[in-house]
Design brief:
The complex is a heterodimer of chains A (192) and B (473). Chain A is mainly alpha-helical. Chain A has one domain. Chain A is built from 8 helices and 4 strands, in the order ααββαββααααα. In chain A, the strands form 2 sheets. Chain A has a two-stranded antiparallel sheet with strand order 1-2. A two-stranded antiparallel sheet of chain A has the order 3-4. In chain A, strand 3 and strand 4 form a beta hairpin. The longest helix of chain A is centred in the C-terminal third of the chain and has 25 residues. Chain A is globular, with a radius of gyration of 16 Å. Chain B has 473 residues and is an alpha+beta fold. Chain B has 2 domains: 281 residues, Hypothetical protein af1432, CATH 1.10.3210; 100 residues, Alpha-Beta Plaits (2-Layer Sandwich). Chain B has 24 helices and 9 strands. In chain B, strand 7 and strand 8 form a beta hairpin. The radius of gyration of chain B is 25 Å and the shape is globular. The chains are: A mainly alpha (192), B alpha+beta (473). At the A-B interface, helix 1, helix 2, strand 1, helix 3 and helix 5 of A face helix 14, helix 20 and helix 22 of B.
Chain lengths: 192, 473
């Protein structure tokens, strides 16, 4: 996907996440972007690995840096104990107006993710993100086996918690086909 | 005194010396045992004597001729010091003590300290000639210096050392700690392994970073990279993650539970008293990047070097046209071989890579025609890429070069242990950390003879080039 279109999608994701009640810290946006790419198959083409708090992309970190330098996003500092929030920057509005087609195509995907993840905190996002990552990486394995794998790499996530996360992600995958089929039929395939 | 029953002095005792010290301009003494020494004497490690730490920077900063050899020794020394500080019983946070079993097991501590120091020693063994300069484009697909480092650690030659060490070491443990999570993307790390790998490669307080800032600063003759690393290391701690908005709710319920068994992934952080030293490290990094690593003349020399290497490798390895990744091939190439070839090529017009070699040896490098700037980036985040591409079309790709680093914000988040026992994010107590900008740069370079003409043309057309077209409905 063209890098500028990709940036337009990320800014819109931030907006929709905030509307859905997210704090929009960098971790929230990293995880939401992972879901947008891996679950709704928006072709963002970031390379994700399992890092400290679940799926993480250094490419995406670079993209955020460029967006920050361009005034497309800004970091809003909050008093202790609140961490910084990411929000659209001074150049964002004018920038988004350049990409009506891209945004029309992918807004349903973005809204789907924002509605499901907007109210989740980092700890929940870590579990869900890791669950999705492992489901895609270890395709074919059952929930029981995957839960043990998750517990192995993230011992602070109990097997029971991992199972709940895997079931939630499974539910999201099943749910997702509805809004996408309505807007852009046949453009996205979802593997459950 | 070691005297045998006949009263003769036992010379074999002297021969079996088990600890060594090496003088170092940064850390004064680097202490080693027999296993470290064996690694140091191995072929992969000795090769690092001939790999400059800062590639072509010595062409701008003449003193910057230090190598990966002494840097790796320094990282080992620092990793050992950090380990000793954070594992000292009175420095261990009770939350962490409960969840990292190894902290309470002296045998495990002894084993992992050894693994850590060895991993620190080996962490750069896979570097190509001139370090990072040519890595991205001149290795086969899927390879980078970390992967070569990993292959070397797992090679038969090094496995012999791990197996025969007085305390045998698992090669996979060394591999994980040396490469870190970013370098060993397909490996799963336990919390313990994560913490130990952070000691070497961590973004905030990694021994690699501490050593390269101090050492590069010293040899380049640039004071900006210096900071109080003694104080910093003295205040390092393994801590639970800081309380922020993002996990406050969970932490609240977590701390309310008495006898809870759940915990958060521990992280490397500092005691409050070390915050100024940590700020100084982050500032040192910012200045070193701006002044040394991102110096525009260094960047263009690195590009000319890469161009030369591409030509030279296509002649030397006609099939692959890349650096070899097999053990012998890798060990056979250092800066010295490349410099010899480059000097030869600069003198002979018919030699592959002559033109690029001449630009380096004869100091006829391309000149900067455009630098990434906030004004243009606000119009188009990829303004520099557009300008480069249009200039290539107009003046020929062979006459233009481009280099960019987007910068990263937010690398300085780490937990701080307050006097009252709370653990908070460093940003909550440091306005300095919040305000240090990300290091970034972007340059377009042009053949010197074309610069004036191209500059005048660019001045006239810049706005039109960087404008973003409206997507058509």
């Amino acid at each position: 996907m063209d890098s500028l279109k990709r940036m337009a999608i990320i800014i819109t994701l931030m907006e929709k996440m905030a509307e859905a009640g997210s704090w929009c810290g960098e971790t929230h946006i990293q995880k939401a972007t992972f879901f947008l790419q891996a679950l709704t198959k928006v072709p963002l083409e970031y390379d994700f690995i399992i890092y400290k708090h679940g799926p993480y992309s250094f490419d995406f970190e670079d993209e955020l840096a460029r967006m920050f330098s361009s005034g497309l996003i800004s970091y809003f500092d909050r008093p202790y104990p609140y961490g910084p929030t990411l929000c659209p920057g001074e150049s964002a509005k004018e920038f988004l107006e350049k990409f009506p087609v891209t945004l029309q195509t992918y807004t349903p995907h973005i809204q789907f993710i924002a509605q499901r993840l907007g109210k989740k905190n980092v700890v929940s996002l870590e579990k869900l993100g890791t669950a999705l990552f492992m489901m895609l990486k270890e395709e074919g394995k059952g929930i029981e086996e995957l839960a043990h794998e998750i517990n192995k790499i993230k011992p602070h996530v109990t097997i029971e918690e991992a199972k709940i996360a895997l079931e939630s992600v499974h539910g999201m995958l099943e749910e997702f086909s509805i809004p996408v089929d309505r807007v852009s039929p046949g453009s996205v395939t979802v593997s459950g | 005194m070691d005297i045998d029953i006949t009263g003769n002095f036992r010379y074999d005792f002297i021969m079996k010396k088990k600890s060594y010290e090496i003088r170092d301009p940064i850390h004064v003494f680097i202490k080693m045992d027999s296993t470290d020494r064996e690694v140091m004497d191995s072929r992969p490690f000795q090769r690092l004597r001939y790999i400059r730490q800062l590639a072509t920077s010595y062409l701008i900063y003449p003193g910057a001729t230090h190598t990966r050899f002494e840097h790796s020794l320094g990282v080992m020394e620092l990793a050992g010091r950090i380990f000793d500080t954070i594992m000292t019983p009175e420095n261990v946070h009770p939350e962490v003590s409960r969840v990292l079993d190894n902290i309470n097991n002296p045998d495990a501590l002894r084993y992992w300290r050894k693994v850590l120091k060895i991993a620190a020693l080996c962490h750069d063994m896979g570097h190509l000639p001139f370090s990072h300069a040519a890595e991205k484009d001149l290795l086969p697909q899927g390879w980078d210096h970390e992967r070569i480092t990993g292959e070397l650690i797992l090679s038969d030659e090094m496995r012999n050392i791990w197996k025969n060490a007085p305390m045998p070491l698992e090669p996979e443990h060394i591999y994980k700690l040396a490469l870190g999570k970013k370098g060993a993307k397909n490996m799963h790390y336990t919390d313990w392994e994560t913490i130990l790998s952070e000691i070497i490669t961590g973004n905030s307080f990694g021994a690699d970073r501490i050593d390269y800032l101090l050492r590069d600063s010293h040899f380049a003759g640039v004071a900006y990279g210096k900071f109080d690393h003694y104080r910093l290391i003295d205040t390092l701690r393994i801590l639970p993650p800081p309380e922020t908005n993002e996990n406050r709710e969970e932490l609240d319920s977590h701390f309310k539970k008495k006898n809870h068994e759940k915990y958060k992934e521990p992280m490397l952080g500092i005691e409050k008293g070390g915050i100024q030293a940590a700020e100084a490290l982050v500032l040192a990094r910012y200045f070193m990047f701006s002044q040394v690593y991102f110096h525009r003349v260094r960047r263009i020399y690195d590009i000319h070097l890469k161009d030369f290497l591409a030509d030279w490798l296509s002649e030397k390895f006609p099939g692959e046209k890349k650096f070899p990744t097999n053990l012998e091939g890798h060990l056979s190439l250092t800066d010295n071989e490349v410099i010899t070839e480059m000097r030869n090529a600069s003198l002979k017009r018919r030699k592959q890579g002559h033109i690029h070699a001449e630009r380096i040896i004869g100091r006829k490098h391309f000149k900067m025609i455009y630098e990434r700037n906030p004004k243009d980036m606000k119009i188009n985040p990829y303004a520099i890429n557009r300008i480069y591409s249009v200039l290539c079309e107009k003046y020929g790709k062979e006459n233009l070069r481009y280099d960019e680093y987007p910068g990263r914000k937010g690398n300085s988040h780490f937990p701080v242990l307050m006097d009252d026992g709370r653990v908070i994010d460093a940003y909550a107590i440091s306005d300095t950390l919040k305000k240090i900008p990300a290091s970034e740069f972007g340059y377009v370079f042009i053949e010197p003879k074309l610069r004036d003409k191209a500059e005048a043309w660019l001045k006239k057309h810049r706005e039109e080039i960087i404008k973003i077209e409206q997507e058509s409905l």
